[in-house]
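Quick question: what would this complex look like in 3D?
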Amino acid sequence: METGLRSDQYDVIEKHTQSGLDLVEKYVKFAKERTEVEQNYAKQLRNLTKKYSPKRGSKEEQECRFSSHQSFLDILNEVNDYAGQREVIAENMILNICLELSKYLQDLKQERKTHLSDAKKAQQSLESSYKQLESSKKRFEREWREAEKANQNAEKADQDINATKADVEKAKMQAHMRTHVAEECKNDYAAQLQKYNQEQSQFYFTEMPQILNKLQDMDEQRAVKLAQGYVSFANTEKLVMPIISKCLEGIAKAGGNTNGKNDSLALIEQHKSGFERPGDLEFEDYSQGINRASSDS
Amino acid sequence: METGLRSDQYDVIEKHTQSGLDLVEKYVKFAKERTEVEQNYAKQLRNLTKKYSPKRGSKEEQECRFSSHQSFLDILNEVNDYAGQREVIAENMILNICLELSKYLQDLKQERKTHLSDAKKAQQSLESSYKQLESSKKRFEREWREAEKANQNAEKADQDINATKADVEKAKMQAHMRTHVAEECKNDYAAQLQKYNQEQSQFYFTEMPQILNKLQDMDEQRAVKLAQGYVSFANTEKLVMPIISKCLEGIAKAGGNTNGKNDSLALIEQHKSGFERPGDLEFEDYSQGINRASSDS
């Protein structure tokens, strides 16, 4: 005969709920590390844009009057905004998944502990009741054996022709007394048995099913909450997708804003004062005087 | 007087086209570093999914019969696919931006070099023509001075009463000869001047505008090509956005697939043989024999 839950059954429930908790814990850790990857990615993108952005007052900054350069600057700004969105993803994952589930996990651990402790208590109470039953059963057995012996003694004295009437009376009194004690032990055993059977039935058909149902509800609730965390993982990123799309649109637009013709015109406009073309050189006639002299001759 | 392009003007064109090339080079480097960030990001995501994926035959892998665990595995797989898409972005940026523009940049450098060298050659040719003009002008000036002197000598001899007829004739011959030489030099100077003015006009109104137009076309073409590279930067990512969206859908779906109730049922189904509830304990009546003895008495 066994008392309490079969140990393998209890272990199954204990292990299954523990494995559920472990999964939540693991998922929180996973989400946390994902945010670190995300933050690292954002940081690298920010460093990249910083590295390629022109310094204030630099030659490169002046070049930005040309659309080709200005568009590159626009792209850097969009990539920077893009990095910002990756940071938003990381922050929201921390808030909506890591912190949310970590807090929930603490409650869950506490709840599971309470249920398991209730189960343990119920089991211990049943075990203690069983021990009482065993001891009252043993007492009953022992006392009946004693009563039996006393009755045999009384019978023997009754049939002994050498026994005095007083001896017989004394033996019969003894037998009667022991039988009375033994009957009281029998009644006690019967009462303990009834009590135990009630408790056992209570344990197996009410208490344990209730606790197991609570653990099951808890585990199902855990699965629901974790599923929300899973969905949150996707939604956190989906939420910024439109803004990320806008960044990409901004980059494409910066490409579209590049206008080499306008840049040429700007360059020509700026430097057109330099486009002076010299006229023809004039003939310098050194022969004017000589021609006269020559024609004079 | 100046020859050739004003040096500041030439510098402007040279610097502007150089700055255009530098920008392309810078953009290629920027895109290259962006792909490294992207590849690094993908690598970290892959490492993360690997770290959290259950080992073959492990206890965790067996847990995947429960939807909560299976969904987490699905998410890991989606994140892995997601990482793959980031790698696609990196690869396509290398192909469509870095390699494409690097190759173009080489052609561009060569083309610019050719145009600038053509400009230099034209300028040198005009300068050399100017030097010839200067030297023929000086010769003309010198020869006319000599001829003037010879004519004055001839006049002096003509008026000198002490001069012999032979002296006068000789001086006149000399004056005539030098005047002839000087006139040839004058004609040469005139021819050189005409040639130079033609060349100068050719240089300023045909050659240099042509070269500058070519450089301008080249730079505008460079801007167009770079703008394509800018747009490509956005498009490369936009192209994988639907697949990334699918990964996110997959993650959300994995969340939706989590079913705690089913997991409970599966657990119960698997372990239901363990759910044996003991029946009531029976009364063990040690008093049967004694009762008889007692009732016999």
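Answer marked as accepted. Residues 1-5, 290-297 of chain B have pLDDT under 50 and may be disordered.
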